[in-house]
What we know:
By secondary structure, the chain is an alpha/beta fold. Helix content is 39%, strand content 15%.
Amino acid sequence: xxxxxxxGELRFPAGFVWGAATAAYQIEGAANEDGRGPSIWDTFSRTxxxxxxxxxxxxxxxxxxxxxxxVAIMADLGLASYRFSVAWxxxxxxxxxxxxxxxxxxxxxxxxxxxxxxxxPVVTLYHWDLPQTFEDRGGWTNRETAEAFADYALAVYGRxxxxxxxxxxxxxPWCSAYLGYSSGRHAPGVQDPxxxxxxxxxxxxxxxxxxxxxxxxxxxxxxxxxxxxxxxxLDEASEADQAAVRLVxxxxxxxxxxxxxKGEYPADVLEHLERFGGTPWLRDxxxxxxNQPIDVLGVNFYSPTYVGVREGAxxxxxxxxxxxxxxxxxxxxPVTDMGWQIEPSALTKLLTRIGRDYPGLxxxxxxNGAAYPDGPGPDERVTDTLxxxxxxxxxxxxHDAISNGVDLRGYFVWSLxxxxxxxxxxxxxxxxxxxxxMSQRRTPKDSARWYREVIRRNxxxxxxxxxx
Length: 468
Ligand code: PNW
């Protein structure tokens, strides 16, 4: 355990899983190959003004054709595990229609390639690329989307379930619901708070129906990935600020975690929803369907959220409807290229809190990482000291959480490759491996070499941050 540390080393528990993560639309390209249908991100990225310089995922990292090279890079890093997502529109081009076997063939090849290199696949079934046909009928505001998700999950499980042990249903439903249907910064670009809350519920329902389907089909380890916010008060001592924390925590965290883990929506959240048309989408028995036992909770973490009550503050009403009068503090101190504040201790607090309030649930960091512009290179070497510092600090934060008794089982860096960063297009680079989008050449950055060393020693050198 964390107590076995040798002097000069910060060791992780034996069997701690070291991985890297990606998502289909961000890396695959091959948007029109082998029968793939259009997704909401194809539509959105083609809508003028939505994505930086009109970038799309049409080609991305061309991973669809280069996956063998990419798996070789993973093997060279010593990754124990690789988290990727399956593109629903490759499997069911029309959303609900017959299964497209050529789409499944790709993931079949990928899984075989991973396993032959000793890398354990972790599948995300939905990382935001909803088949467009659903959106034409209301997308996640329509209950039928949730019902269809379970059929899709079974189709993927039927092909990969003999080799894939770990399954997660959704990636960051907070983003799908609030960025997709309230702020409109992500696909499908709707701006309607009531629609966002309907989407929350149908995403929760999709998760629950998906878990039940995977469970009855025999899946071994099943979970979901959230991006729980580490919501902190501007003033620890202020009761008003603590109330602001509770509201934002309710809208971001408990609205997902409570139905999933405890089988009920929190009373304070339900009361807040009365301001947005209530819960017309909630049917008897829904929370029981959502409340399926899960084996693991994936946590994506990048940055803290500081809030407090301040008179006249506009709130962040696009992402958190009804937060007028709450100040969301601008980042303080160093930020990444996303403008996101860097504060590793907020990750320790978050993990410790989840461990306390939702006990008995093994946790995985399914994403953590930082965007930084290219430093020198990319020739032989890409120097990304700031990314190494970010990762090093957050791994220490994970280690602190484990020392606090948190059941954290693994860590997946976001991301293996520079990739299509959603509304930011290819402008933001999250990879530990550089991608030259003209030549598709991959160049492991210094952070990749550093990560290989972390994996090799199952921990960090206390001096930290550099190779031996
Ligand atoms: C997550 N925000 O996305 C996703 O799971 C990844 O696909 C993504 O590349 C990564 O984090 C880095 O952004 C988010 O604006 C994108 O609040 C945007 C936001 C949050 C998460």
